[in-house]
Specification:
Length: 139
């Protein structure tokens, strides 16, 4: 978002936000919840979802961002997503703890070349990786 805002202005950045929201809502199930957390961070709650289904959904979403390009006037921007995923089955986990886990996973995805899905707890066997591209939008 920073690259778009800095080179094309905030109107272009607002349009990119709208396009990202559309992408996030395209593949969601009727009972999923999508929200903008702030800046270029979004959250999706996937109730009634197994960890394997959640990874599949996250990877499909990551690929949809990778295939999307944002165009404003004569400029074209690659858009990728770093996705942090935490499966919360324990009903005693607070919202703050759940967000902390997701944030840690997202940070891990960004540290490992971006454009990937990282699951909390961060173990090498639970990572879905995509090809590295420029980071414009992070989730």
């Amino acid at each position: 978002f920073k690259a778009v805002n800095d080179t094309c202005g905030h109107l272009a950045g607002d349009r990119l936000l709208s396009d990202v929201a559309r992408l996030l809502n395209e593949g969601r199930r009727p009972h999923d919840h999508v929200a903008r957390l702030g800046g270029d961070e979004f959250g999706i709650i996937l109730p009634r979802c197994t960890p394997y289904e959640a990874v599949d959904i996250a990877e499909q979403l990551r690929r949809s961002f990778e295939l999307f390009s944002f165009t404003w006037e004569d400029r074209c921007f690659a858009v990728t997503a770093s996705i942090g995923l935490a499966c919360i089955a324990d009903r005693t986990i607070t919202l703050e703890e759940a967000l902390r886990r997701v944030d840690a996973a997202c940070y891990g995805a960004k540290q490992k070349c971006r454009n990937r899905v990282q699951v909390y707890p961060m173990r090498p066997e639970v990572v879905a990786a995509g090809s590295a591209k420029r980071q414009t939008a992070g989730i």
